[in-house]
Each structure stands twice: as C-alpha cells, then as structure tokens.
Design goal:
Layout: E1 18-19, H1 22-34, H2 36-43, H3 56-68, H4 78-81, H5 84-87, H6 93-101, H7 105-125, E2 135-141, E3 144-145, E4 155-156, E5 162-164, E6 167-171, E7 177-181, H8 192-205, H9 208-211, E8 227-231, H10 238-246, E9 250-254, H11 259-268, E10 276-279, E11 285-293, E12 308-315, E13 330-337, H12 343-351, H13 355-368, H14 376-399, H15 410-418, E14 422-427, E15 430-435, H16 442-454
Parallel strand pairs: 2-8, 8-9
Antiparallel strand pairs: 1-14, 2-6, 3-5, 4-5, 6-7, 9-13, 10-11, 11-12, 12-13, 14-15
C-alpha cells in the first residue's frame, strides 16, 4: 500500500511558460469591460508635476484582484506583479501603500461615486435587480479585532477586545456592500446618526431611477421604486424610523423588550387563534414556530403612522438569544414594520435580514480583518477597497457565473476559479493561455470569458 501523499519529482526554476491566477485575469477582464479602472482613475486627482507611472484606477482594480484572491496586505500585490503576461505592469507594494495613504475624504467620496456609476450599469444587466419589487437594504455592524493600540480610531469592544466596529449597508438582492462606516470598537450600537449616515450613503449608490424620492426631504411623489431597510434591534429607535419616513424608505427593525410587549404577549400566549404557522424562506412551514400581530395590544403612538408589531415564537433551544418574554417553553422575538402583508409574510421577510451575516463573513474573508495602516484615513480607504473588491466579485457572479458558483463563498472561488493555473503559448503572434485538461472549473472559466465578451 502506497503511503506517500506526493509523487517524487525534480523541481527546478527558470520556466516562463506557466501562469497562475487565470480566474483573477477573468475577473479583471470584467472590470475592464465595465470601465471600472477608467471611472476610478477619474476620481483620483494627479497631484505631482508628472503623471504617475501606474494609473491610479488600474492600481485600485489590481488591488481588488489581490483582495479577491485572498490578499490581506499591500505586500500581497507582489503575487500579481510576477504575472505580467496576465496583468501587465503591476505596481509594487510600496506604490500601493502610498496610493492608499494619499486618499483623503474628498477622493474617497469620488471613488464611491465612480462605483455608483458602474453599479448602475451592472444593475441594468442583472435580473436580480430589474423589475418593480422593493429594493431591500440591510444595515448591521461587526467587530474587527486589532492587535495594536497604535492605530488611530480604534477602541475597546464590549466583548473585551480592541479594534474597530464598522457599520455596513448591503443590498439584499445582490449582496453588494453599498456603504461602510469605520467606527471605533466602542461605538454605540444604537447610534441614530451612524445608521442614517450609512443609509444615505447606500441610497447614493442606487441607480438614479431607484434612488429617486429617497433622499432626505424628497417629495413622496418622486418615488419610482420602493426601498425598505432592515436592521436588528440596534436600529430600534424612534429617531431612526423617523429618518426612514423622512426619506420615504420603509423599515423593519428588531424589537427591544419592554413592559408593553410583555403585556401583549401575556394576553395572547394561550390564545392559539392569534397565532399562525411561520414559514421558511421557500414558503414551507417552519416546524414549531408561529407568528402573531400584536399591533392592537401595544401603544404605537410614538411610532410613524402605519407601524405594526409582529411577534414570532419558537421552541426554546440551548443557546437561544434573549427573548422578548420570559418563558420556559418558547423563545419570543419581534420586529416593528410599516410594510403591508400578512404577519407570516412580514416575519419571513424580516428573518431574511440574517443574510447580512453572510455578507459580512465574505468581507472578513477578503481583507476586512486586516487594517494595515496606523492612519485612520488610510484605513478608511482600505475598508472602501475591501467593499469595492467584494462588489466586483459579486458582479462577476451575477453577470458571468452559472449555477452554484454564482453563490459560492470566497474560499471556493479561490480554489476553483481565481488561482487556476494555465500554460502560456504563442500562436499566430498572440499569447494564448491553455487551461489544464481535467481542471474541475475549466468549462466555467472558458464560459466566463465568452459571457464577458458579450457584455455591451
């Protein structure tokens, strides 16, 4: 029986006919097809007497490719630099470092505006964002541990750690990070100003026809497409929901326990006629869980007109989070919403807010957990770049990839696509990359190039 895990070979250096990261080349081709580098380049002003050797838009796009491939620091750009046959002239790690250090607040705003332009063209092409259904936004924050007290803007966290607590807003239909706010680790969870700042930034990222009527003070008659924002109980404040109403944005926010809700649940706890079976996202019944509306049993006068309170109960299980109501048999959870629909439909829609955890996990797998600078503005630029890279990957999945790869996690994409090897040959005066026979994702890579070529 053979116990060796490898085949004995002789390893030598010196060949220039093999390339790695073929999938990242395809990702870069999509960025070029969308004009991403040109848009970003236009947002970065040239400050010296001469134009830089490396176009700053190209530098940022290649840094996105590095992050998509698993890079966690500026030094990781060097892995692309040695693949000139695929990526052309790639900047050094020191150039990338200086580029990010030079990005100030006005440049960051311009980069987000450039991303919004490209995003509009992607949304017009994707079936996930066309139609008339409401655009659902999800706001949530997460802790990022930093192992240094010398980074500007950090702070202690409620979990006993130290670092940042960035807040994000994602588009539920696509998983894109529409806005990001870098905050210290001790930032308040229920800060209304932060929630509204992130919401406004996310609305600015929506295509013009979607964002119409959703800016502060806009006339409701201007609304062409509904927008709904979901948050956990951190967004459960009168100030935030009033801000949503002022922007003609619907809301669904997790409820916080109080005496009024306790009393309402007590009145219906044994009244089975008030409860209806809860459903999963696919519409199938969720065993043991049920939903009821208690809007008529609580005082909602301080909430915007039309606010409803929906409560769900489910069997108590080990490790369950704090309940709205003390019970030995059930866990109770609820949310406020101003949306139309049955209590069961609203509960299922609100439960989908859990998607935000997957979106944040993707960011943490793609550079979010590494802030390489001591300067706060530079780390804000790094956070933006992480979001841009994740959005570029999502665009690739939406427009180019079929089947399970369209929803694959970063790790799967790296193993199957981004780091695919190939052989570089010359034929008829041009370079040709040949994928390995039998490579599991070869067909998907070849098909992706064909789909990119068809984009108009």
């Amino acid at each position: 029986m053979e116990a060796n895990s490898t085949v004995r070979v002789k390893v030598e250096g010196g060949d220039d006919q093999v390339v790695a990261h073929v999938g990242l080349h395809a990702l870069g081709c999509l960025a070029d097809r969308l004009g991403l580098g040109d848009w970003l380049s236009g947002a970065v002003a040239v400050t010296g007497e001469r134009a830089p050797v490396h176009d700053r838009g190209k530098v940022l796009v290649q840094a996105m490719l590095m992050l998509a491939g698993g890079g966690e620091s500026c030094a990781d750009i060097e892995h692309l630099r040695f693949q000139g046959a695929l990526f052309g002239s790639v900047c050094s790690d020191s150039t990338l470092y200086r580029s990010l250090r030079s990005i100030g607040p006005s440049t960051r705003a311009g980069l987000w505006e450039a991303m919004a332009e490209v995003r509009s063209s992607v949304w017009r092409r994707s079936s996930a964002t066309t139609g008339t259904a409401p655009i659902v936004l999800d706001i949530d924050a997460s802790l990022v541990q930093v192992h240094s007290e010398h980074k500007e803007g950090t702070g202690p966290t409620y979990k006993g750690g130290f670092g940042f607590s960035p807040m994000f807003c994602f588009a539920d239909a696509t998983g894109e990070a529409l806005a990001a706010l870098l905050r210290p680790g001790n930032a308040g969870a229920m800060t209304v100003v932060d929630h509204l700042e992130v919401l406004d930034a996310a609305i600015a990222q929506l295509p013009a026809e979607v964002a119409a009527g959703h800016r502060l003070g806009d006339d409701p008659e201007r609304v062409e497409r509904a927008v709904v924002v979901r948050t956990d109980s951190a967004g459960c404040s009168h100030g935030f929901v009033a801000g949503c109403r002022a922007r003609n944005v619907g809301f669904a926010v997790g409820a916080r326990s109080n005496a009024s809700i306790h009393a309402a649940i007590s009145r219906i706890a044994a009244d089975e006629s008030r409860w209806a079976p809860a459903t999963r996202q696919d519409g199938e019944e969720r065993p043991g869980a049920s939903v009821a509306e208690v809007s008529d049993l609580v005082d909602l006068s301080a909430w915007p007109v039309g606010t409803r309170l929906i409560v769900r109960r489910e069997p108590l299980h080990p490790g369950a989070q704090q309940s709205l109501f003390p019970s030995q048999c059930h866990r109770f959870w609820g949310h406020y919403s101003d949306q139309a629909g049955t209590p069961v439909e609203l509960d299922a829609a609100m439960r989908a807010h859990a998607h935000v955890e997957d979106h944040i996990k993707r960011l943490k797998d793609s550079g979010l957990e590494r802030f390489p600078f001591a300067d706060l503005d530079a780390n804000r630029a790094w956070l933006d770049l992480v979001c841009f890279a994740a959005d570029l990957v999502r665009w690739f999945q939406l427009l180019v990839l079929p089947g399970y790869l369209a929803k694959a996690e970063p790790k799967a994409l790296r193993w199957q696509l981004w780091h695919s090897p190939g052989r570089l040959v010359r034929r008829a005066g041009e370079h040709v990359v040949r994928l390995l026979d039998g490579w599991p994702s070869a067909d998907a890579i070849l098909a992706s190039y064909g789909r990119i070529a068809l984009l108009t």
